[in-house]
Amino acid sequence: MNRDLLRDDVQKWIADHTFSDVKKLALAKNPFPDADYKELLNQISARAKAKDKLPGWFNTGGIVYPSKISVEQTSSEKTAEYKSHLVSGEKLIDLTGGFGVDDFYFSKQVNQVVHCEMNPELSEIAAHNFKRLERHNIVCESGDSTEILKNLETRFDWIYIDPSRRNDTKGKVFLLADCLPNVPELLDFYFSFSDNILIKTAPLLDITAGLKELSHVSAIHIVAVENEVKELLFEVRKDFIGSLQIKSVNLLKNSTQEFSFLISEMYVESEFGTPKKYLYEPNTAIYKSGAFDLIGRRFGLTKLHKHSHLYTSETLVHDFPGRIFEIQTVLDYDKNAMKTHLQGKKTNVSVRNFPETVEKLRQKWKMLDGGDSYSFFTTAYPNDKIVLLCAKI
Protein backbone atom coordinates (compact mmCIF):
# COMPACT_ATOMS: atom_id res chain seq x y z
CA MET A 1 0.00 0.00 0.00
CA ASN A 2 1.35 3.40 -0.99
CA ARG A 3 1.87 5.38 2.24
CA ASP A 4 1.79 8.67 0.30
CA LEU A 5 -1.99 8.21 0.14
CA LEU A 6 -2.20 8.68 3.91
CA ARG A 7 -0.67 12.16 3.94
CA ASP A 8 -3.12 14.80 5.21
CA ASP A 9 -2.62 17.05 2.18
CA VAL A 10 -3.19 14.13 -0.22
CA GLN A 11 -6.29 12.96 1.64
CA LYS A 12 -7.74 16.49 1.59
CA TRP A 13 -7.09 16.80 -2.15
CA ILE A 14 -8.79 13.43 -2.81
CA ALA A 15 -11.83 14.45 -0.71
CA ASP A 16 -12.05 17.87 -2.39
CA HIS A 17 -11.99 16.32 -5.88
CA THR A 18 -14.16 13.25 -5.27
CA PHE A 19 -16.85 14.34 -7.71
CA SER A 20 -14.57 16.04 -10.22
CA ASP A 21 -14.27 14.84 -13.82
CA VAL A 22 -11.39 12.35 -13.59
CA LYS A 23 -10.70 12.57 -17.35
CA LYS A 24 -10.17 16.33 -17.05
CA LEU A 25 -8.07 15.90 -13.92
CA ALA A 26 -5.87 13.40 -15.78
CA LEU A 27 -4.89 16.17 -18.19
CA ALA A 28 -3.98 18.54 -15.37
CA LYS A 29 -0.63 18.79 -13.60
CA ASN A 30 0.00 16.40 -10.71
CA PRO A 31 -0.18 18.55 -7.53
CA PHE A 32 2.04 16.00 -5.74
CA PRO A 33 5.04 15.25 -8.02
CA ASP A 34 6.41 12.68 -5.57
CA ALA A 35 3.14 10.67 -5.65
CA ASP A 36 1.77 8.36 -8.36
CA TYR A 37 -0.86 10.50 -10.10
CA LYS A 38 -2.64 7.46 -11.57
CA GLU A 39 -3.09 6.10 -8.07
CA LEU A 40 -4.49 9.41 -6.83
CA LEU A 41 -7.02 9.48 -9.66
CA ASN A 42 -8.02 5.90 -8.83
CA GLN A 43 -8.71 6.96 -5.23
CA ILE A 44 -11.05 9.66 -6.52
CA SER A 45 -12.95 7.26 -8.83
CA ALA A 46 -13.22 4.53 -6.20
CA ARG A 47 -14.29 6.96 -3.45
CA ALA A 48 -17.04 8.36 -5.67
CA LYS A 49 -18.30 4.81 -6.24
CA ALA A 50 -18.36 4.25 -2.48
CA LYS A 51 -20.60 7.23 -1.64
CA ASP A 52 -23.94 5.39 -1.90
CA LYS A 53 -22.72 1.81 -1.74
CA LEU A 54 -20.36 2.18 1.25
CA PRO A 55 -21.37 5.33 3.19
CA GLY A 56 -19.51 4.17 6.31
CA TRP A 57 -16.23 4.05 4.38
CA PHE A 58 -16.99 7.25 2.46
CA ASN A 59 -17.66 9.21 5.66
CA THR A 60 -14.54 7.98 7.48
CA GLY A 61 -11.28 9.89 7.07
CA GLY A 62 -8.09 8.19 5.95
CA ILE A 63 -9.73 5.31 4.07
CA VAL A 64 -7.66 3.82 1.24
CA TYR A 65 -9.43 2.28 -1.74
CA PRO A 66 -8.31 -0.50 -4.09
CA SER A 67 -9.18 -0.35 -7.80
CA LYS A 68 -12.56 1.05 -8.84
CA ILE A 69 -13.49 -2.45 -10.10
CA SER A 70 -12.85 -3.93 -6.63
CA VAL A 71 -15.22 -1.37 -5.12
CA GLU A 72 -17.83 -2.16 -7.79
CA GLN A 73 -17.58 -5.90 -7.08
CA THR A 74 -17.64 -5.74 -3.28
CA SER A 75 -20.79 -6.24 -1.22
CA SER A 76 -22.80 -3.15 -0.42
CA GLU A 77 -23.23 -2.21 3.21
CA LYS A 78 -26.93 -3.14 2.94
CA THR A 79 -26.26 -6.71 1.81
CA ALA A 80 -23.30 -7.11 4.18
CA GLU A 81 -25.43 -6.09 7.15
CA TYR A 82 -28.14 -8.53 6.10
CA LYS A 83 -25.80 -11.51 5.85
CA SER A 84 -24.11 -10.65 9.14
CA HIS A 85 -27.32 -11.61 10.96
CA LEU A 86 -27.04 -15.15 9.57
CA VAL A 87 -23.89 -15.90 11.60
CA SER A 88 -22.99 -16.00 15.29
CA GLY A 89 -20.47 -17.49 17.69
CA GLU A 90 -16.84 -16.98 18.67
CA LYS A 91 -14.91 -17.29 15.40
CA LEU A 92 -15.52 -16.79 11.68
CA ILE A 93 -13.01 -17.07 8.85
CA ASP A 94 -13.56 -15.33 5.50
CA LEU A 95 -11.60 -17.23 2.86
CA THR A 96 -12.04 -14.54 0.19
CA GLY A 97 -11.73 -11.31 2.18
CA GLY A 98 -11.28 -8.73 -0.57
CA PHE A 99 -12.03 -5.15 0.50
CA GLY A 100 -13.51 -6.45 3.76
CA VAL A 101 -17.03 -4.98 3.80
CA ASP A 102 -18.62 -8.30 4.79
CA ASP A 103 -16.05 -8.84 7.54
CA PHE A 104 -16.70 -5.40 9.01
CA TYR A 105 -20.31 -6.44 9.61
CA PHE A 106 -19.46 -10.03 10.62
CA SER A 107 -17.20 -8.56 13.32
CA LYS A 108 -20.28 -7.03 14.96
CA GLN A 109 -21.85 -10.48 15.39
CA VAL A 110 -18.80 -12.71 15.98
CA ASN A 111 -16.05 -12.21 18.55
CA GLN A 112 -13.15 -12.79 16.13
CA VAL A 113 -13.00 -12.63 12.34
CA VAL A 114 -10.08 -13.84 10.21
CA HIS A 115 -9.83 -12.03 6.86
CA CYS A 116 -7.91 -14.05 4.24
CA GLU A 117 -6.78 -12.35 1.05
CA MET A 118 -4.44 -13.67 -1.64
CA ASN A 119 -3.40 -10.19 -2.83
CA PRO A 120 -0.96 -8.81 -0.21
CA GLU A 121 -1.62 -5.15 -1.12
CA LEU A 122 -5.39 -5.59 -0.80
CA SER A 123 -4.85 -7.39 2.52
CA GLU A 124 -2.79 -4.43 3.77
CA ILE A 125 -5.44 -1.95 2.60
CA ALA A 126 -8.19 -3.91 4.38
CA ALA A 127 -6.15 -4.08 7.62
CA HIS A 128 -5.51 -0.31 7.48
CA ASN A 129 -9.19 0.46 6.87
CA PHE A 130 -10.38 -1.80 9.70
CA LYS A 131 -8.25 0.29 12.09
CA ARG A 132 -9.70 3.53 10.70
CA LEU A 133 -13.19 2.06 11.12
CA GLU A 134 -12.31 0.98 14.70
CA ARG A 135 -12.95 -2.73 14.14
CA HIS A 136 -10.24 -4.30 16.28
CA ASN A 137 -11.45 -7.91 16.31
CA ILE A 138 -10.49 -8.65 12.69
CA VAL A 139 -7.19 -10.39 11.93
CA CYS A 140 -5.85 -10.07 8.37
CA GLU A 141 -3.92 -12.98 6.83
CA SER A 142 -2.39 -12.74 3.36
CA GLY A 143 -1.95 -15.86 1.23
CA ASP A 144 -3.77 -18.92 -0.03
CA SER A 145 -6.83 -19.52 2.15
CA THR A 146 -6.44 -23.31 2.02
CA GLU A 147 -2.93 -23.07 3.45
CA ILE A 148 -4.03 -20.49 6.03
CA LEU A 149 -6.78 -22.86 7.23
CA LYS A 150 -4.27 -25.70 7.54
CA ASN A 151 -1.74 -23.57 9.40
CA LEU A 152 -4.23 -22.08 11.87
CA GLU A 153 -5.43 -25.53 12.97
CA THR A 154 -8.53 -23.94 14.51
CA ARG A 155 -12.22 -24.81 14.53
CA PHE A 156 -14.49 -21.98 13.40
CA ASP A 157 -18.17 -21.40 14.04
CA TRP A 158 -18.51 -20.23 10.43
CA ILE A 159 -16.59 -20.27 7.17
CA TYR A 160 -17.56 -17.57 4.68
CA ILE A 161 -16.67 -17.81 0.98
CA ASP A 162 -17.32 -15.49 -1.95
CA PRO A 163 -15.76 -17.48 -4.83
CA SER A 164 -14.76 -15.58 -7.96
CA ARG A 165 -15.19 -16.86 -11.49
CA ARG A 166 -11.95 -17.96 -13.14
CA ASN A 167 -10.79 -15.74 -16.00
CA ASP A 168 -10.27 -18.74 -18.29
CA THR A 169 -13.89 -19.91 -17.94
CA LYS A 170 -15.76 -19.86 -21.25
CA GLY A 171 -19.46 -19.90 -22.02
CA LYS A 172 -22.45 -18.42 -20.24
CA VAL A 173 -23.11 -21.30 -17.84
CA PHE A 174 -22.07 -20.24 -14.36
CA LEU A 175 -21.06 -23.10 -12.07
CA LEU A 176 -19.42 -23.03 -8.65
CA ALA A 177 -16.87 -25.52 -9.96
CA ASP A 178 -15.76 -22.79 -12.41
CA CYS A 179 -14.82 -20.49 -9.52
CA LEU A 180 -11.87 -20.01 -7.18
CA PRO A 181 -11.85 -21.49 -4.68
CA ASN A 182 -13.61 -24.58 -6.08
CA VAL A 183 -16.10 -24.96 -3.24
CA PRO A 184 -17.78 -28.23 -4.36
CA GLU A 185 -14.37 -29.89 -4.57
CA LEU A 186 -13.21 -28.50 -1.20
CA LEU A 187 -16.45 -28.89 0.75
CA ASP A 188 -15.35 -31.94 2.81
CA PHE A 189 -12.05 -30.20 3.58
CA TYR A 190 -13.93 -27.13 4.83
CA PHE A 191 -16.17 -29.28 7.01
CA SER A 192 -13.07 -30.45 8.88
CA PHE A 193 -12.73 -26.84 10.15
CA SER A 194 -16.37 -25.80 10.60
CA ASP A 195 -19.87 -27.25 10.68
CA ASN A 196 -21.36 -24.11 9.10
CA ILE A 197 -20.47 -22.58 5.73
CA LEU A 198 -21.98 -19.48 4.14
CA ILE A 199 -21.37 -19.14 0.40
CA LYS A 200 -22.10 -15.96 -1.54
CA THR A 201 -22.59 -16.14 -5.31
CA ALA A 202 -23.59 -13.73 -8.04
CA PRO A 203 -27.31 -13.70 -8.95
CA LEU A 204 -26.39 -15.18 -12.33
CA LEU A 205 -25.98 -18.60 -10.72
CA ASP A 206 -28.86 -20.97 -11.43
CA ILE A 207 -30.20 -22.14 -8.07
CA THR A 208 -30.96 -25.67 -9.32
CA ALA A 209 -27.41 -25.98 -10.67
CA GLY A 210 -26.00 -24.76 -7.35
CA LEU A 211 -27.98 -27.38 -5.44
CA LYS A 212 -26.66 -30.11 -7.73
CA GLU A 213 -23.08 -29.05 -6.97
CA LEU A 214 -23.48 -28.66 -3.21
CA SER A 215 -24.62 -31.08 -0.51
CA HIS A 216 -26.21 -30.32 2.87
CA VAL A 217 -27.68 -26.94 1.86
CA SER A 218 -30.09 -25.88 4.62
CA ALA A 219 -31.17 -22.48 3.26
CA ILE A 220 -30.82 -20.18 0.27
CA HIS A 221 -31.23 -16.43 0.61
CA ILE A 222 -32.01 -14.42 -2.53
CA VAL A 223 -31.04 -10.84 -1.67
CA ALA A 224 -32.25 -7.88 -3.71
CA VAL A 225 -31.66 -4.17 -3.09
CA GLU A 226 -34.33 -1.79 -4.39
CA ASN A 227 -35.78 -4.63 -6.50
CA GLU A 228 -32.47 -5.65 -8.11
CA VAL A 229 -31.13 -9.08 -7.12
CA LYS A 230 -27.56 -8.59 -5.90
CA GLU A 231 -26.49 -11.94 -4.48
CA LEU A 232 -27.42 -15.48 -3.53
CA LEU A 233 -26.40 -16.91 -0.16
CA PHE A 234 -26.16 -20.67 0.41
CA GLU A 235 -26.16 -21.86 4.03
CA VAL A 236 -24.42 -25.25 4.12
CA ARG A 237 -24.42 -27.23 7.35
CA LYS A 238 -22.49 -30.44 7.99
CA ASP A 239 -24.74 -33.53 7.87
CA PHE A 240 -27.89 -31.46 7.24
CA ILE A 241 -30.65 -33.61 5.70
CA GLY A 242 -33.82 -31.60 6.44
CA SER A 243 -36.08 -29.61 4.13
CA LEU A 244 -34.40 -26.74 2.27
CA GLN A 245 -35.69 -23.24 3.09
CA ILE A 246 -35.68 -20.49 0.46
CA LYS A 247 -35.89 -16.91 1.60
CA SER A 248 -36.38 -14.04 -0.85
CA VAL A 249 -35.50 -10.62 0.54
CA ASN A 250 -35.89 -7.20 -1.05
CA LEU A 251 -34.05 -4.49 0.92
CA LEU A 252 -35.79 -1.16 0.36
CA LYS A 253 -34.88 2.31 1.62
CA ASN A 254 -37.19 2.23 4.64
CA SER A 255 -38.46 -1.35 4.77
CA THR A 256 -37.74 -4.96 3.86
CA GLN A 257 -39.95 -7.34 1.85
CA GLU A 258 -39.50 -11.00 2.84
CA PHE A 259 -41.03 -14.20 1.55
CA SER A 260 -39.88 -17.55 2.94
CA PHE A 261 -40.89 -21.10 2.15
CA LEU A 262 -39.72 -24.69 2.21
CA ILE A 263 -38.87 -26.07 -1.20
CA SER A 264 -41.45 -28.82 -0.64
CA GLU A 265 -44.16 -26.11 -0.53
CA MET A 266 -43.48 -24.88 -4.06
CA TYR A 267 -45.49 -27.50 -5.86
CA VAL A 268 -49.02 -26.17 -5.60
CA GLU A 269 -51.57 -25.25 -8.25
CA SER A 270 -52.61 -21.69 -9.03
CA GLU A 271 -56.15 -20.46 -9.37
CA PHE A 272 -56.49 -18.66 -12.72
CA GLY A 273 -58.93 -15.91 -13.58
CA THR A 274 -59.57 -12.57 -15.22
CA PRO A 275 -58.37 -9.18 -13.85
CA LYS A 276 -60.17 -7.87 -10.77
CA LYS A 277 -59.71 -4.58 -8.91
CA TYR A 278 -56.05 -4.91 -7.88
CA LEU A 279 -52.89 -6.12 -9.65
CA TYR A 280 -49.80 -7.54 -7.96
CA GLU A 281 -46.28 -7.88 -9.38
CA PRO A 282 -43.81 -9.89 -7.24
CA ASN A 283 -40.38 -8.40 -6.54
CA THR A 284 -37.32 -9.68 -8.40
CA ALA A 285 -36.14 -11.87 -5.50
CA ILE A 286 -39.39 -13.85 -5.72
CA TYR A 287 -39.00 -14.11 -9.49
CA LYS A 288 -35.54 -15.59 -8.92
CA SER A 289 -36.95 -18.08 -6.39
CA GLY A 290 -39.43 -19.52 -8.90
CA ALA A 291 -42.29 -19.59 -6.36
CA PHE A 292 -44.82 -18.37 -8.91
CA ASP A 293 -47.71 -20.56 -7.80
CA LEU A 294 -47.01 -20.48 -4.07
CA ILE A 295 -46.98 -16.68 -3.85
CA GLY A 296 -50.54 -16.50 -5.21
CA ARG A 297 -51.81 -19.27 -2.95
CA ARG A 298 -50.10 -17.81 0.14
CA PHE A 299 -51.81 -14.43 -0.33
CA GLY A 300 -55.12 -15.73 -1.67
CA LEU A 301 -54.65 -14.22 -5.14
CA THR A 302 -55.83 -15.24 -8.59
CA LYS A 303 -53.15 -15.61 -11.25
CA LEU A 304 -53.77 -14.07 -14.67
CA HIS A 305 -52.01 -16.81 -16.66
CA LYS A 306 -49.64 -19.71 -16.06
CA HIS A 307 -46.69 -17.86 -17.61
CA SER A 308 -47.56 -14.22 -16.85
CA HIS A 309 -46.72 -14.23 -13.11
CA LEU A 310 -49.11 -11.37 -12.37
CA TYR A 311 -51.85 -11.71 -9.75
CA THR A 312 -55.17 -10.07 -8.98
CA SER A 313 -57.77 -9.71 -6.23
CA GLU A 314 -61.01 -7.89 -5.47
CA THR A 315 -59.87 -6.74 -2.01
CA LEU A 316 -56.48 -5.14 -1.30
CA VAL A 317 -53.65 -7.25 0.18
CA HIS A 318 -51.39 -4.63 1.78
CA ASP A 319 -48.38 -6.75 2.73
CA PHE A 320 -47.73 -8.34 -0.69
CA PRO A 321 -43.93 -8.48 -1.35
CA GLY A 322 -43.81 -6.50 -4.57
CA ARG A 323 -45.57 -3.70 -6.38
CA ILE A 324 -49.33 -3.20 -6.03
CA PHE A 325 -51.59 -1.37 -8.50
CA GLU A 326 -55.23 -0.47 -8.82
CA ILE A 327 -56.57 -1.58 -12.20
CA GLN A 328 -58.45 1.30 -13.83
CA THR A 329 -59.09 -0.09 -17.32
CA VAL A 330 -58.75 -3.49 -19.01
CA LEU A 331 -58.18 -3.31 -22.78
CA ASP A 332 -58.09 -5.95 -25.46
CA TYR A 333 -54.82 -5.52 -27.30
CA ASP A 334 -56.03 -4.19 -30.65
CA LYS A 335 -55.49 -1.16 -32.86
CA ASN A 336 -58.62 0.73 -31.83
CA ALA A 337 -58.00 0.36 -28.10
CA MET A 338 -54.38 1.42 -28.42
CA LYS A 339 -55.21 4.48 -30.51
CA THR A 340 -57.94 5.57 -28.12
CA HIS A 341 -56.17 5.03 -24.80
CA LEU A 342 -52.38 4.94 -25.25
CA GLN A 343 -51.12 6.24 -28.57
CA GLY A 344 -48.99 9.32 -27.92
CA LYS A 345 -49.65 9.17 -24.16
CA LYS A 346 -47.15 9.18 -21.27
CA THR A 347 -47.08 5.87 -19.37
CA ASN A 348 -44.74 3.42 -17.66
CA VAL A 349 -44.77 0.26 -19.77
CA SER A 350 -44.20 -3.29 -18.48
CA VAL A 351 -44.35 -6.54 -20.44
CA ARG A 352 -45.17 -9.91 -18.91
CA ASN A 353 -45.66 -12.97 -21.15
CA PHE A 354 -46.29 -10.84 -24.22
CA PRO A 355 -44.94 -11.26 -27.78
CA GLU A 356 -43.61 -7.69 -28.17
CA THR A 357 -40.88 -5.86 -26.23
CA VAL A 358 -41.28 -2.59 -24.37
CA GLU A 359 -39.12 -0.82 -26.95
CA LYS A 360 -41.16 -2.14 -29.87
CA LEU A 361 -44.46 -1.20 -28.21
CA ARG A 362 -43.26 2.32 -27.43
CA GLN A 363 -42.12 2.80 -31.00
CA LYS A 364 -45.23 1.25 -32.52
CA TRP A 365 -47.73 3.31 -30.49
CA LYS A 366 -45.55 6.39 -29.91
CA MET A 367 -45.92 6.12 -26.13
CA LEU A 368 -43.85 8.46 -23.95
CA ASP A 369 -42.01 7.22 -20.86
CA GLY A 370 -42.84 8.29 -17.30
CA GLY A 371 -45.78 9.84 -15.54
CA ASP A 372 -48.17 8.32 -13.00
CA SER A 373 -49.84 5.86 -15.38
CA TYR A 374 -48.70 2.21 -15.58
CA SER A 375 -49.53 -0.06 -18.53
CA PHE A 376 -49.06 -3.82 -18.30
CA PHE A 377 -49.05 -5.69 -21.60
CA THR A 378 -49.68 -9.33 -20.77
CA THR A 379 -51.55 -12.54 -21.51
CA ALA A 380 -54.59 -13.36 -19.40
CA TYR A 381 -56.54 -16.57 -18.86
CA PRO A 382 -57.24 -18.51 -20.99
CA ASN A 383 -54.94 -16.99 -23.65
CA ASP A 384 -55.98 -13.39 -24.32
CA LYS A 385 -53.59 -10.54 -25.09
CA ILE A 386 -54.63 -7.61 -22.91
CA VAL A 387 -53.41 -4.28 -21.58
CA LEU A 388 -54.01 -3.23 -17.98
CA LEU A 389 -54.05 0.50 -17.29
CA CYS A 390 -53.18 1.00 -13.63
CA ALA A 391 -52.33 3.46 -10.89
CA LYS A 392 -49.62 2.50 -8.41
CA ILE A 393 -50.62 2.13 -4.75
Question: Would you give an account of this structure?
Answer:
This protein has 393 residues and is an alpha/beta fold. It folds into 3 domains: 3-68, Methyltransferase PG1098, N-terminal domain (Arc Repressor Mutant, subunit A, Orthogonal Bundle); 74-263, Vaccinia Virus protein VP39 (Rossmann fold, 3-Layer(aba) Sandwich); 278-392. It is 31% helix and 28% strand. The chain has 15 helices and 18 strands. It has helices spanning 8-16, 22-27, 37-53, 55-58, 68-73, 77-84, 101-106, 120-132, 145-152, 183-191, 207-213, 284-289, 292-298, 335-341, 358-365; strands at residues 89-94, 110-117, 138-142, 158-161, 164-165, 179-180, 196-201, 217-225, 228-237, 245-251, 256-262, 278-282, 302-303, 311-313, 322-332, 348-352, 373-380, 384-392. It has a 9-stranded mixed beta sheet, sandwiched between helices. Strands 13-14-12-15-18-17-16 form a 7-stranded mixed beta sheet. A hairpin with a 3-residue loop joins strand 17 and strand 18. The relative contact order is 0.07. The mean pLDDT is 95. InterPro entries: PG_1098_Fer, SAM-dependent_MTases_sf, Thump-like. One of its GO terms (biological process) is methylation.
